[in-house]
Amino acid sequence: MSYRLGVDVGGTFTDVLLVHETSGAMHTAKVPSTPSDSSIGVLRGIERVCAHAGIDPTDISHVMHGTTVATNTVLTGSGARVGLVTTQGYRQVLQIARSFVPGGLGGWVIYQKSEPMAPLELTIEADERVGARGDVVRPLDEAALRVALANLREQGVEALTVCLINAFANGAHEQRVREIAREVMPGVPVSISSDVIPEMQEYERTVTTVANSYVRPKVETYVRNLEAEIGRRMGNARLRILRSDGGLASSDAAANYPVKLLMSGPAGGVSGAIWVGLNAGFPNLLTFDMGGTSTDVALVQDGRAKLRRETTVGDVTVRASSIDVRTVGAGGGSIAHVPALTRALRVGPQSAGAEPGPAAYRKGGTLPTVTDANVVLGYLPQVARLGGDLEIDVGLAEAAVQLIADALGVSLPTAAEGIYNIVNENMYGALRLVSVEQGFDPRDFALMAFGGAGPLHANALGRLLGAWPVIIPLGPGVLCAYGDATTSVREESSRTYVRRFTEADADGFRAALAELAAAGAQALDAEGVPRAEQRTGFEVDVRYHGQGLLLAVPATPADADDGFRALAARFDALHEQLFTFTLDTEHEFVNLRAVVEAQPPRISARRIDSGTADASAALAGEQRVRIDGAPHTARIYERAKLRAGNRVAGPAIVTQMDTTTLILPGHAGEVDAHGNILIRPEV
Amino acid sequence: MPARLIETGQALQRVPVDSITLDILENALKNARFEMDAVLFRTAMSPGIREQHDEFPLIANRDGKMIVGQFGSFIHGFVDAYDGTIEDGDVFLTTDPYSCRGAISHANDWLVLLPVFKDGRLIAWGAMFGHMTDIGGKVPGSLPTDARQIYEEGIVVPPVKIYRRGELQDELLKVILHNCRLPHWNRSDFNAIVAACRTAGRRCVELSRRFGDDVFYSAMEDLLDRNRRAMHALIQQSIPERKQTFEDYICDDGMGMGPYRIACTMWREGEKVIFDFAGTDPQSVGSINFYLNEEMFKMFCGVFMIMVFDPQIMFNDGFYDLMEVRIPAGSLLKPRHPAALSCRTHALGRIFDVISGLLGQGNPDFLCAAGFSDSPHLMYSGYDRNGEWFQLFQIGFGGIPGKPFGDGADGHSLWPNFTNVPNEFLEAYFPLRIETYETIADSGGAGRHRGGNALRVAYRFLEPGEISIHDDRWLTYPWGVNGGAPGRRSRKVLQRVDGSHEILPSKCDRIRVQEHDLLLFETWGGGGWGDPLAREPELVARDVRRGLLTREGADAYGVVLADDGHVDAAATTALRAARTASRPPAGVFARGGSLDELKARCLLETGLPPPLPPSAPRMPRPPRTS
C-alpha cells in the first residue's frame, strides 16, 4: 500500500489530500492553520486524514508540501540577521540599489526606501578582484578577511552572504571566503552567489543571495523539524517541498536554497489547476485565484505554467525562477473609496483583511468592501454562510456601500455594481498582463477560478476576456493540496554562456548541454528517481546581440548541427509574436539550461455520480439579484447535490462550503464527470 | 501651416460617460502606457534606453492632449509646425527641437508620433521619445561642449513621415542612420520605440471597440476635465496671489563662462497661475541652452504640486489653461535658431530645483531641498586592441534632497524609472573596470531630514581612448532649506597611471586617457531639510555605523558619540543647547555663500578657476513673420 500526501498551509486553513498511488482514491482533511508553527497544523492534518481513510501513517511514501514560511518571513520582516561580504568598493551595493526610484516623474518626493535585508553596518568588503572573464586581478587578502569576519561574528550575525564582483564567471574567491567563514563563525549558514545564482548583474545577484540567507534559518528549522516528525511517525516517507517554479525539491535543497521557495504557495494552486484542467480536457488555462486581500493569476499552455526568471514578494525582487504569477491587490476584503478631489471610484489595494473584515461579517468593519458590494447585489445569499459559519448582515453591507453611493451621488445598487465592475477590471488587467501582453489571445484559453472569492467574479471575467469555458473546480479550496500531491520532482541546472551564434562552436555547445543534463540527472538520482523515469529537456536564453531582453527558446543538442539556423528562426518567430518586429542583427546565447524531471504520477481524478441535464434536485431557493443594471431572480443551487451532466442556467448562484459561484444571465454551467462546473455563454 | 488631418467617417460625438466607465478607461490607458515601457525596455539595444530608461511615452487624445504619460504632451508643437497631412498608417519622426517648439530639447532625443486611427477616424495618439547614444556630429555621443550651432551636434531630422500610410520610408531611414556612429543601436532603438507606440495604438483601438468610439472619445475629454477640477482646487489652495521669485544657476557653459541665472516669478491671477522667466540670462554661445516647451513646464509644475500636496490625483493635460508660462525669446530657456542645444541636460534638471524653490517658499512645510537636478554623463570611446570601436555612454546618479517626508536616498535618480547599467555588464562589454561604486560619506546636506549622499564611481580604463564629461553644481551648492545645510558639490579627478593627478572641469570633451588611468567621477549630494540639531541623535549614530556619515560629519548635527559609537546623550544635549543659543537665525534657503563669495573661493576649494561672467552673444534676428 502506498500513498502520496499533499499539504497546503493557507492563512486560515491547512488542507491535506491523501491519494492512493495506483487506484487514485482520495481523502481530504481541513484543519485550522497554526501560524506560530505551521508544522503543528500540518501534522494534525496528516493524523486527521489518516484516521479518516483508516490507514497507517507508515503507508505514506511521499509527503509533498507547499509552504509559505519563506514568503511570510520576507513579508513580515522576521528573517535572520544577515551579514554580507562584497568586493572592495562595493559595500553599498544594496544601499544604492541601482539608483532606482519608483513612482514616475516626481516620485522621489514621497519615496521612502525600505531597509535592505542585509544591513549596511553588517556589510564588509573583501580585498580581492576577479575580472569580467573570470581572471583573478587581485588575490584574496585572507588575513584581513578573518579579522572582518570575526568582527561580524561579534555582532551576532545569524546567516552570511558572499557576493563578489564577477563571481558568475569565477566563483573561486567566493568559495574560499566560505571556507574561511566556516572556520571563523562555525554554525552560521553561508550562502554564496556563484552557487545560488551564477548569473551576471551584481545587484540582482546580491539581493537574491541575501534573500536566501535572510529566510534560510527559519526555513531550515521548519523543514528539518517537519522532516524529523514525519520520520518519527511515518518511517521512510520522503518530504518534498514545492518550489516557486512548480517543481518539487528535496528537503535538503529546500533548506539550502530557500530563495527558490518564495512563491511555493501560489505555485501549488497553479499546479492543482493544471491537474484539474488536464483531467477535464483543458490543457490551456488562465488561472485566477481570488482571496481576501489579493488575486493571483497565471497562464498555462499545454499543461505547463509559464515561468519567469524572477520572483517578487512585497518589494523584494530576486532572480529565481517562478511560475509567472501576477498579483493584484484585489480581493473580497478590498476597500472601495472615493478621493475628495477627483471623485473617482477606487477599489483597493487597501484591504479590510480578516479583521475587521467586510462590514457584512459583523466583526466591526464599517468600510465598504468588495464582499459588501456582492452582498448588496444579492450574490451572497443568506444561505451561503461562508466557510459554513459566517453569518451575513445585509443591513451593515448596505450601510457601508451607501458611503460610496453618497460620495458619487448615485443609487446604492449602482454604487455596488460600480465596485463589482472596478474590481473585475483590476483583475482583468492582471489577466491581460499574463496573456495579451505576452502575445497570447485569451480566447484560446479556459479560465479556471478558485480561492474563496474567485467563483463569484469568474463569469464576469470570462466575459471580459472571451475565455471559455470558465471552470469552477469541485474543491476550489483544496486545489493547492491537489497541486502538491500531483506534481513531479524537477531539477533545473543552468549556466551563463554568452556568445554569438557565429562564435559558438558546435561541440562546445553539445558538451555544455550534456554537462547540465548530467548535473540534473544526478540530482534526481539522489531523489531516488530511476533514470528510466527521468525526462530531460533543454532551453536556451537568446537575444539579438546588444539587446537587453532574454527570450527562453526550447533547444536540443542537435540545434548545433545546422549552425543554429533553425534555432535562430524559432527565436525570430517568438520575437515577432511578442514585439511585432525582428532584426537582422546577430543572435546571441546568454544562458543554457537543462530541465530534468520525473514522470508525473499517474493519478486519475475522482468521478462524481451522473445525472441528467435537469439540475432541479439541487435547487435550494431563489434570490433577488442585480446584474448589468437590471433586477433578476436567480436560482440558488447546492453544489453538493449537483450531478454530472446537470445544466444550470443563469442567472444562478451555486453555494458550497468554501465558495459561492455566480452564473450570469445568458450563460449556463454544465457539470462534468469530475464535478467541475463549466460555464459558457448560451447560443 | 499646421498639419492637415485626413479622416473619413463622421465626427466623434461627446456623450455622457458614467464615472465607473471613466475609471475603468483611465486604468486601462495607464496600463497601456506601462506596456509601452515594457515593450521598449525589452527590445531596445542601447544601454541608455534599455538599462537607464532614458525615454518618455505618452498616450494623448485626438487633439494631442496627454491623458497618460509623464512629460505632458508635445504633440501640439508638432502639429502646428508640420506642413503636410496626417493619415491612417503614418508614423512621424523628428529630432529637431526648433521644429516642434521644444517638444524635444536636443537632437539626441528621437521623437516618434503615431496617430491612432479607427475606421478612418483619428481617435488618439501614441508617442514616445528616447535618447540615442549617438547621432554623429563632432564628438562621440553627439553632445559637444564647445558647439556654437546645432549643425555641429549631429544629424537633425525635421518632422517627416517615416512610415507613409503604413510603408516604411527605408531610404530616408538609411540616410539618417548613415550619419550615426552606432547605426545598429539607432535602428533597433527606433524599431523599439515604434513598436511601443504601436502597442499604445492597438490598446486604444481595443478600448474604443469595447466601449464605443464616442464613449472612448468622450471619456478622454472627461478625464481632462476631472484633472482640471482637481488642479483648480489645488492651485487655489497652494498658490498665493502675491509674487514670489526664485533663482538658481547653471555653474558654467564649458567655455569658461558662468554662472548662468535661471529666474522665475510666480503669482496667481484669479484661477490662473503665471510663471514669468524674466530675469533669466540670455542664451549661451555654447551648447547648454535648453529650449523649454511651455506646456512641458506646466506638466513639471503640475506633477510636482500633485506629488507634494496630493499624490492621489492622476495627472494629465487637463489643467493647462490654468497656467501661463512666459519665457523671454533669446534667453537660455528659449534660444534662437541655430543655437547649439545638445548639453541642455543641466538646465533641464535645474528647472526642477527652480520649481521646488518657487512653489515651496510660500509653503515651507512642503518645501524640498535642492536635489540631484541633472543627469551627468560620461563618454568613453576609442578602438580596442582588436580594432573594434567601443563607445560608452553612462549617466551618473546622486543625492535625493531632504524633504518634508524624510531623508533623501543615497546615490539615487531624480528621473523616473532610471537605473544604473550593472557594472558587471559594463565590464563585460567595455574595456574598463569599476573599482569603486559607493556613496560619499558626509556629502548629503545635514538636516533634520538629511540630503542623500553623492555617488563616487572609480573607472579604471583598460584601453587608450577619449572621454567626455558633462556635469554641473561644481561651483554653486545644492541648497538646503528650513535650516538644513547644502549638499557637497561635484568633482572629477583623473589619476594618471604615471602618478599625476588632474582636476577635470565639470564639462569637457576629448580628454585622452591611457591604459590603466583612473577616473574618480563624483556627483553631488542632496540639500538638507530642517534643523540638523533637531535630527534624532540615534539616526546620526546609525548613519555613522553604516559609514554614510563620518564621526566628524556627526558634528554638524551637534551629536556627540562615545568611543563605542553610541550617542552620548548628556553631551549631545549640552552641545545642541550651546549651538542653538549662539547661532544666527537660519533663512529659508542655505546656498553656501553668495555668488561673489563662491567665485572668490573657487580656485582654492575646487582646484579650478572661476568662470567669467557670461557675455550675451550677438543674436540672430527673430524669424520674419509673413
Q: What's the structural blueprint in terms of helices and strands?
A:
The complex is a heterodimer of chains A (683) and B (626).
Chain A: E1 3-9, E2 13-20, E3 26-32, H1 38-53, E4 60-66, H2 69-75, E5 82-87, H3 93-96, E6 123-126, E7 129-130, E8 136-138, H4 142-154, E9 159-162, H5 172-184, E10 190-192, H6 193-196, H7 202-234, E11 238-242, E12 248-250, H8 251-256, H9 264-280, E13 285-290, E14 295-301, E15 304-305, E16 307-308, E17 311-313, E18 316-318, E19 322-323, E20 326-328, E21 334-337, E22 346-351, H10 370-376, H11 394-408, H12 412-434, E23 446-450, H13 454-465, E24 470-472, H14 479-486, E25 490-500, H15 506-526, E26 534-544, E27 551-555, H16 565-579, E28 587-598, E29 619-627, E30 630-638, E31 647-649, E32 652-656, E33 659-663, E34 667-671, E35 677-681
Parallel strand pairs in A: 1-4, 4-11, 5-6, 5-9, 9-10, 13-23, 23-24, 30-32
Antiparallel strand pairs in A: 1-2, 2-3, 7-8, 11-12, 13-14, 14-15, 14-20, 16-19, 17-18, 21-22, 24-35, 25-28, 26-27, 26-28, 29-30, 31-34, 32-33, 34-35
Chain B: E1 4-5, H1 19-43, H2 47-50, E2 55-61, E3 66-69, H3 75-81, E4 85-86, E5 91-94, E6 109-118, E7 121-131, E8 160-164, E9 167-168, H4 170-178, H5 183-211, H6 213-238, E10 244-250, E11 260-269, E12 272-276, H7 294-309, E13 323-326, H8 345-360, E14 377-383, E15 389-395, H9 423-429, E16 432-439, E17 455-461, E18 465-470, E19 480-481, E20 491-495, E21 501-503, E22 507-513, E23 518-522, H10 537-546, H11 569-582, E24 589-590, H12 595-600, H13 602-606
Parallel strand pairs in B: 1-4, 12-13
Antiparallel strand pairs in B: 2-3, 2-7, 5-6, 5-8, 6-7, 8-9, 10-11, 11-12, 14-15, 14-18, 16-17, 17-23, 18-22, 19-24, 20-21, 20-23
